[in-house]
């Protein structure tokens, strides 16, 4: 590990004033410390944010919730208001990592965890995300876990979070604070596709701190399901995951949300497909047609063509489970 300066500010203002291009905020440390030990990230300054007052879950005036950035993944998944109103989010969090990791991992850190691409993690090989312009060995190499949607010539990495797939479906809003003030970012705009600049995962500036995640009132509690397909039954990242949420008007769909994880550089959502589901009655044929549409632009690599069929089946199953009232964890 490389030498670094360490600070522990006691306010959000002080934290953002310390931040810059060579610094990193550290929360649970479950991703950042691994990256530092593997020499993938070499911050000169660690700004420990665990002393900041960002651990509350509060109700908002319009019926939603504001989740502090330091609320642990475990506390969030088991929070009574999340379990009752946003079971999709609770399910997604509990599908990830392990109990010990979820106790340490923070809400803000989960959004900013980095890809699990093998080449990104190996500091001895080129990687455009780690060293811009060095190349992408994954394109022609071991690419079983990589993207089938939204990739670029420079990068085929996927975003590994489960929680973010549910947050995208729930249309969460990210609250951030920088030296220039506070702003909010719609979840759909928060993460980026790789394009020509795969080193940038999201829209945050160097001095910006995530302070909270806001959930709108609509939690789709009666008809939602998070389905994660992975190589092992637990403690493995998603090959494909699906967050499916429906609002039913009697026998037909009034509103639909459908987001894929494990297939792209960000949670993958197509509002055209969701709109197409409106007014339709739930059926295997309808959900299969939605899956066809969501995956129509998939461009698999040599070793991950299986993900297209897997995602198709997962979408049909997740939507079907959501229509029937979801499933218990
Ligand atoms: C073995 C293992 C298995 C895992 N399996 C899964 C899985 O199946 N599914 C899944 O979704 N995740 C999984 N994870 C990832 C885990 O969920 C993340 O490591 C965790 O959520 C990161 O949170 P943290 O607080 O520890 O972040 P840290 O490691 O502290 O930080 C991560 C990044 O976020 C930045 N950061 C943190 N907080 C803020 C903030 N408030 N504002 C701005 N920047 C911030 C840091 O600078 C850093 O760049 C796994 C991790 C491990 C180690």
From TrEMBL:
InterPro entries: CO_DH_flav_C (IPR005107), CO_DH_flav_C_dom_sf (IPR036683), Diverse_Substr_Oxidored (IPR051312), FAD-bd_PCMH (IPR016166), FAD-bd_PCMH-like_sf (IPR036318), FAD-bd_PCMH_sub1 (IPR016167), FAD-bd_PCMH_sub2 (IPR016169), Mopterin_DH_FAD-bd (IPR002346). SUPFAM superfamilies: CO dehydrogenase flavoprotein C-terminal domain-like, FAD-binding/transporter-associated domain-like. Keywords: FAD, Flavoprotein. Pfam families: CO_deh_flav_C (PF03450), FAD_binding_5 (PF00941). PROSITE patterns: FAD_PCMH (PS51387). GO terms for molecular function: FAD binding; oxidoreductase activity. Residues 1-220 form the FAD-binding PCMH-type domain. This is FAD-binding molybdopterin dehydrogenase. It comes from Pseudomonas arsenicoxydans.
């Amino acid at each position: 590990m490389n030498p670094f300066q360490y600070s522990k500010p006691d306010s959000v203002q002080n934290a953002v004033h310390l931040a810059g291009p060579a610094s990193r905020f550290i929360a649970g440390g479950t991703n950042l410390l691994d990256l530092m030990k593997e020499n993938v990230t070499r911050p000169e300054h660690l700004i420990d944010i665990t002393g900041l007052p960002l651990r509350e879950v509060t109700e908002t005036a319009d019926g939603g919730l504001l989740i502090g950035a330091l609320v642990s993944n475990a506390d969030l998944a088991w929070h009574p208001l999340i379990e009752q109103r946003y079971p999709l989010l609770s399910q997604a969090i509990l599908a990830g990592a392990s109990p010990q990791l979820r106790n340490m991992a923070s809400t803000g850190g989960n959004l900013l965890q980095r890809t699990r691409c093998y080449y990104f993690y190996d500091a001895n090989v080129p990687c455009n995300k780690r060293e811009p312009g060095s190349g992408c060995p994954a394109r022609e190499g071991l690419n079983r876990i990589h993207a089938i949607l939204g990739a670029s010539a420079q990068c085929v990495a996927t975003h590994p979070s489960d929680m973010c797939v549910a947050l995208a479906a729930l249309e969460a809003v990210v609250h951030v604070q920088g030296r220039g003030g506070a702003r909010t970012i719609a979840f759909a705009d928060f993460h980026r596709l790789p394009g020509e600049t795969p080193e940038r995962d999201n829209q945050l500036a160097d001095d910006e701190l995530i302070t909270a995640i806001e959930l709108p009132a609509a939690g789709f509690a009666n008809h939602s399901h998070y389905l994660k397909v992975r190589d092992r039954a637990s403690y493995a990242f998603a090959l494909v995951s699906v967050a499916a949420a429906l609002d039913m008007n009697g026998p037909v769909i009034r509103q639909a949300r459908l987001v894929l994880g494990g297939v792209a550089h960000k949670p993958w959502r197509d509002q055209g497909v969701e709109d197409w589901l409106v007014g339709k009655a739930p059926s295997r044929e309808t959900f299969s047609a939605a899956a066809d549409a969501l995956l129509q632009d998939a461009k698999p690599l040599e070793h991950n063509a299986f993900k297209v069929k897997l995602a198709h089946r997962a979408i049909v199953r997740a939507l079907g489970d959501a229509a029937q009232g979801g499933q218990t964890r």
